[in-house]
Design a protein that fits this description.
Number of strands: 13
Oligomer: single chain
CATH class of the largest domain: Alpha Beta
CATH superfamily of the largest domain: NAD(P)-binding Rossmann-like Domain
Strand content: 15-25%
Distance between the termini: 51 Å
Structural class: alpha/beta
Shape: elongated
Length: 372
C-alpha cells in the first residue's frame, strides 16, 4: 500500500493506463545492480531513483574527475576526487529517500561478481571495458538475472536486454572481444556528452519494464542510435547454438574474467612533475606530441614537436637526430604515447619515454598551479 506522500510523488505513474499502484509497488519492491556509475550509470541511476526503484546497488571503484563532468550528470565540480559510488549514493538519496542506495566502492570482479548479481533483481551494465561486460554477462546468466546492456562510442550507442531462457546472451552478440587496441577508449577517442544520456535513459526504461512486467523488453533485439543522424534502428539478435554459455553444449560454468589486454608497450614512463626538471637540464630533451591534428589544435605543451602516431614510423627520419637524446612522447592521456615510446626504442632511441597521463595530466597541473 502506497503512503499518502508516495501517492503524490508518483502521481504521474499512478495515472498511467496499465501502470497504476500495482506497477509502482513492484518498482518500490525491486532492486537494480548498476555496474559502473559513469556516463551510462549516471542518467540510468537518476531516472531509476526518481521512478522509485526501491534498492539500487552502485558498483564503481573510480573517483570523480573533471573530465567526467561533460557527461556524468550525477556529479558536480565540488565533488572532484570523491569516490563515484559514494557521490552517487549522496545524490540519489537526496533525490528520493524512498530509495535505498548501497555504494560498493570496489571493482566488479570475479571475487564479488556472482554475490553482487545475486543480491539484485536486474543488472544494468554500464561498464566501459570488454572484460567487465563479459563477466557481467556470465555472472548474470549463471545467477538467472537479466542484464540491461548499454555501450557508447563516439557519436553512436546501443542498448539491449539479455535474459536467460528468453533470448541470446552477450556472447551470442560478441563471441569474442575485438583485438586489443582496436576500439579506443572514450578518453582517447572522445564521446559526445549527451550520448550516454540517451543510452542510459534507454537502459533505465528497460529496467523499469522488466521490474513492472510492462511492455516488450529488448530481448533478442539490439537498439542502435546514431546521434549525428538522430536515427534509431533495431536489429534482431539470435541465440547461437554453439555459444559456450547459453548454447546447446555449454562449457562455461563459472564467471571468470576473460583474457583480454591492450598491447603491452614496454617503455618507461615519467610523471608530469618530472617534466620541468628534465627540460631545465643541459642535456637535450625533446617533446614529441603524437596526437592527431584536431587534438593539437586545442593546445600543446610548449616546445613540442607534432608527429601523429600513425605517421611516426614513416617519418622516423625527422627524429633521427634525437636518437641519443631524451625523447618524451606525449598523447592525450598517456596510452598512445606508450606505443610511440616503444616504437622509438625499437628503432634505437634508448632514452624514449612516455608522459604518464599525457597532455590532460599536464593541463590539470597547470590549472592547479594557476588556481583555476
Amino acid at each position: 500500500m502506497l503512503r499518502p506522500d508516495q501517492q503524490i510523488r508518483y502521481a504521474r505513474h499512478l495515472s498511467l493506463p496499465g501502470f497504476g499502484s500495482e506497477a509502482q509497488e513492484r518498482l518500490l519492491a525491486g532492486s537494480v545492480l548498476l555496474v559502473g556509475a559513469g556516463g551510462l550509470g549516471s542518467p540510468a541511476a537518476l531516472y531509476l531513483a526518481a521512478a522509485g526503484v526501491g534498492r539500487l546497488v552502485i558498483v564503481d571503484d573510480d573517483r570523480v574527475d573533471l573530465t567526467n563532468l561533460q557527461r556524468q550528470v550525477l556529479y558536480n565540480t565540488a565533488g572532484q576526487g570523491k569516490p563515484k559510488a559514494e557521490s552517487a549514493r549522496e545524490a540519489l538519496t537526496s533525490l528520493n529517500r524512498d530509495v535505498e542506495v548501497e555504494a560498493v566502492n570496489e571493482r566488479f570482479a570475479e571475487k564479488n561478481a556472482r554475490d553482487l548479481v545475486r543480491s539484485c533483481d536486474i543488472v544494468l551494465d554500464g561498464a566501459d571495458n570488454f572484460p567487465t561486460r563479459y563477466l557481467i554477462n556470465d555472472a548474470a546468466y549463471l545467477e538467472k538475472r537479466p542484464v540491461v546492456h548499454g555501450s557508447i562510442h563516439l557519436f553512436e550507442g546501443q542498448c539491449t536486454v539479455f535474459a536467460r531462457d528468453r533470448g541470446p546472451c552477450y556472447r551470442c552478440l560478441f563471441p569474442s572481444p575485438p583485438p586489443p587496441g582496436a576500439v579506443p577508449s572514450c578518453a582517447e577517442a572522445g564521446v559526445l556528452g549527451v550520448l550516454p544520456g540517451m543510452i542510459g535513459v534507454a537502459q533505465a526504461t528497460e529496467a523499469i519494464k522488466l521490474l513492472t512486467g510492462l511492455g516488450d523488453p529488448l530481448v533478442g533485439k539490439l537498439l542502435m542510435y546514431d546521434a549525428l543522424a538522430m536515427q534509431f534502428r533495431t536489429l534482431q539478435i539470435k541465440r547461437r547454438p554453439e555459444c559456450p554459455l547459453c548454447g546447446d553444449s555449454p562449457s562455461i560454468t563459472e564467471a571468470q574474467t576473460i583474457a583480454f589486454s591492450c598491447p603491452t608497450a614496454e617503455a618507461p614512463e615519467i610523471e608530469v612533475s618530472d617534466l620541468q626538471p628534465l627540460q631545465a637540464e643541459e642535456q637535450p630533451c625533446h617533446l614529441l606530441d603524437v596526437r592527431e591534428a584536431r587534438e593539437v589544435a586545442l593546445g600543446m605543451i610548449p616546445g613540442s614537436t607534432h608527429i601523429p602516431l600513425g605517421e611516426l614510423e614513416d617519418r622516423m627520419a625527422e627524429v633521427t637526430p634525437w636518437r641519443d637524446e631524451q625523447v618524451i612522447c606525449i598523447c592525450q592521456v598517456g596510452q598512445r604515447s606508450l606505443r610511440a615510446a616503444a616504437l622509438l626504442q625499437h628503432n634505437g632511441f634508448g632514452q624514449a619515454v612516455s608522459l604518464r597521463g599525457g597532455y590532460a595530466a599536464w593541463l590539470m597541473t597547470q590549472l592547479r598551479e594557476n588556481g583555476s
